[in-house]
Amino acid sequence: MSKRVLIFGGTFDPPHLAHTTLAARAAALLECDNILFIPAAINPLKVNHPPASNEHRLAMLRLAIAEIPNAKTSTIELDRPGPSYTVDTLRSLKASRHQGIEASRENANAFFLLIGADQALDFHRWKEWRDILHLATPAVMVRPPWTQESFREALMRAYSKLEVESWMRWTLDLPLMDISATDIRRRVKAGEAASGLLHPAVEAYIHTHGLYR
Q1: How far apart are CA 69 and CA 34, in angstroms?
Q2: Using the 8-state DSSP alphabet, how is residue 98 labeled?
Q3: Which end of the chain is more exposed for a tag (fewer CB within 10 A), N or C?
């Protein structure tokens, strides 16, 4: 029996409560057995290095998900040189066991790819994006400043009517959580509190290691 796996990639710089809360809720809605958090080395659409090192981001991510049942981290993209292409990651995960998670080659729906509304709107710019749709089913989070209505309107400017309906079908009914890593880094740099936005262990790690200052 193959397992249903929710794959959530990102820079996680730092990982915050919206990342973990929404991923856990998405996994419950989709009846996934596992959540695989995959920190990216370099975003191909930005081609820059995250402010915090790979080691710090991975350490913070492990602290952030420690209390989420069946949540795991993967270093598959950190271990691979160059930009982190989702299609390459999915192919690797499909082809073999990775960190104890087995996927079925026959069942594309064994993988769900959790992405934000902005990523969905840019999806046609992703490397071999049509192949990604054969490897995993998108699961879209609509986060502020987007709403369901404004997201649909933006989709209509980027995709055909049939594609818009597919994207809306892949959109999950999740709570709106207005938390961003950019804002958290700004707060830390300014010496402002970030309590309520981060897991306490992650917040302590940031201060202990003097990150984002």
Answers
A1: 8
A2: B
A3: N
